Amino acid sequence: MSHFEKRVQLNKIIESQLPEFLVADFPKAVEFFRQYYISQEYQGADSDLINNLDRYIKLDNLVPEVVVGKTTLSSDITSSDTTITVSSTKGFPEEYGLLKIDDEIITYTGRTNTTFTGCIRGFSGITGYNVGITSFFSDVNKQNVVFTTSTAKSHNDTAQVTNLSVLFLQEFYKKLKATFTPGLEDSDFVSDLNVGNFIKHARNFYQSKGIEESVKIIFKVLYGVDAKVLDLESRLIKPSSADYIRREVIVAENISGNPFGLEGQTVFRSNDLNTNASVSDVEIFTRNNKTYYKIGLFVGYNERDLVEGIFDVPGNSKSLEAVSIGSSIISVDSTIGFGQTGTLISGNNSIEYTSKSINQFFGCSGVVSTISLGDDIRANETIFGYENGDLSKRVDLRITGVLSGFVPLGDLSLIEEGEEITVRHVGEAIQNPDEDKTYKEVFANSWIYNTSARYKVGSISGSTFTLLSNIDKSSLREGDTVDVLVRNSQTVASAGAKVTSINTATRQVILSNLSGFTPVVNVDYDIRRKIKKVTTSGAELLLGNNNYISDALNVYSDDNSTTGYVASHSLPGYDIVDQIIESSIPNGYDTNLGGYDSVLKTYSIIKFPTNVKFIDGDRIVYTSDNQLSGLVSGETYFVTVVAPNQIRLYTSK
Predict the structure, then answer these.
(1) Which residue from 159, 301, 511, 594 has the highest number of Cβ atoms inside 10 Å of its Cβ?
(2) Contact 78, 156 (CB under 8 A)
(3) What are the pLDDT digits (tens) for 214-244?
(4) Dist. CA 542–CA 548, nearest whole Å
C-alpha cells in the first residue's frame, strides 16, 4: 500500500492520557492499555478503519502489491522462528500486520524490505470477508467475516505468504470494479497493473470502446501483452474508391409541419440545441392505423461522425388512474426517463410538475381536461427543423421507442426479415409454481403488489363473481377495493366494491357494496383492483391522506436472475397510527424479577402479570416511583423478549 500519514493513534500517546495516580499505583497499566489499543488500531482493525477510512479508500492505495496481496518465502522456517524472510514486503504494514502462510496466521512488530521481524506465531485474525446483506439470493445467510485461529507450524521456502491486512481494501477493489468497469468485474487484471490509475480513467476507456486504442488497452490490462490490431477493411479489394455513406435511423410521429420538407435540413433536440444532425431521407409508414416517419440521420463518410449528441427516446408512461381537472398529483406506471422537474403532455394538457417519485408526479399545474386511466403521459420533448430551410415553417416530431437488440429464447429459423413481431406483454411473465421454484420465481412472487390488476368475469350470481383465470394473492386479496367494468372498455358499472371473500379453488370472489349494480344480459364484465393509497390517523403526511401510492409497485431482475430490485415508496397500505405501546407492573406485584445470578447477586429478567406488547430491539423509556435495582427512571433502554411476559433490558443495541 502506498504510505500515508494516519491520524494519531492512542497506543502511541497513552502515557499522556492516563492520570498520574493510576500510573503510580499500577505501574503496568500503561503497557496494558497500550497493548489493548494496539489490538484495536493495527491496520484493518475496527478503530483503524473508522478513523482512517477516508484515506484508505483513495484509489492511489490500489497499488499492485495490495490488489494481489501475496509474496513468497525465500527460505524454510520452523515453528519457532521469529524472523521470516520473503521476496518482498512491499504492500504490508510497517508494524503489527497480519500475514498467512498455509493455515498459520502470524503477526509481527517490524519489517525490512525482505524480512518480517518480531513475529508472533500461531496468531488469530480475520482471513476473509463475505457479504451478509446481499442482493445475491444464494448468499443471504453467509456471515460478514471469517475469523480463524491457528497454531505455529514449519513452512518450506517458496510457500505463499498472504497479506491479511489488506483484505478490506481488496473488497473495496471488487466493489470499484463492479461499479466503474462493468463487464470486467469477474476478470483478473495483470498482477503489475496500477489498478487505481486504470479505474480513474475507465470512463475514457469505455467512451473509446471499439477503436484500435481501446482494443490495445484491454489486451494490456487482461493479458499484459501489446496487441496489434489489423484493419481488414484496408486489405479488401473495393470496386471503387468512393466513400460509403453511413446513416442512423430514428422513428418519430409528426406533431406539426411536413416531415418530408426536412430532407437535407438540420434537426435539433428541443431541450438541448447542441444535439443536432442532418437529415438524409424521410420515409413514411403505418402501424395499427397510426402514421410514423423513419428519419435517416447522416452520420458521415468512413470514420467521421457528424451527429452531435444523442437523440434518445423521451419519457413516456401510462396513467394509473383517472386525473380530474385541477389535480396536483398524477400517478403513472413509472417515471423513469422523466426529469426531476419538467413539463408533461397528455392530450391537450401541458402540465408543469415540481417533483416526482418512482411513479407519481407532484406539484402539477395545468390539468385543464380530464386524463383517463391508461392515457399516455409524455415528457414535453421533441425534435424540430424547418421545411426546406424556411424559418416560418417549423416541423416538430416526437421520437418513439423502437425495440432493438432482440434476443430470441429459441431457434427462429422460419422468421424472415421484414416480418412483423407483436409484443404480448412488456417485461417478463414469471410463473408461480407450487414447488421447485427458481430464485426469480421466489423473489417475484414474494411481494404483495399494489397494481391495478384486471380479471375477466365468467359469471355473476348475486354478489358472487366467478373469474375466468386463477387468482393470485399478489394481485387480488380479501379487503381490496375493486371496480366492476364493462369488458373491453373503461366504463365503470359499479365503483368501490369490497372483496370480502376469495375461493382460489373455484375462482370465486364475493363482493360487497354493490348497491345499484344489476348485470345486463349478454354484457361481459371485468373486475379491476383500485390502487391503494397511504392513510394515517396519527402521523402527518406532507400531502395528506389518500395521495401517496403505498406498498410494492414493480420488481426487476438482472439477466442472470441473481439480483432483484423493488420499486416502492416504502409506505404501507394499512393505516399508519401514532400510539404509545406500554406494559406496566402494578404495585404489590412482588414476583417481577427473575434470572438470579448467585455470583453477581443480580436479577436479569423483569416479569409482567400479562403478556408484553414489545418486540426485540424496541427502544423504551423506563419510568417508576419505586425504581427496580439497576434501572434509572426516565432513562432509555433496549428490549429483548425472553418469554411472552418477560423481558431483559439493555443500555445499547
Answers:
(1) 511
(2) no
(3) 888 888 888 888 888 877 766 776 565 555 5
(4) 10
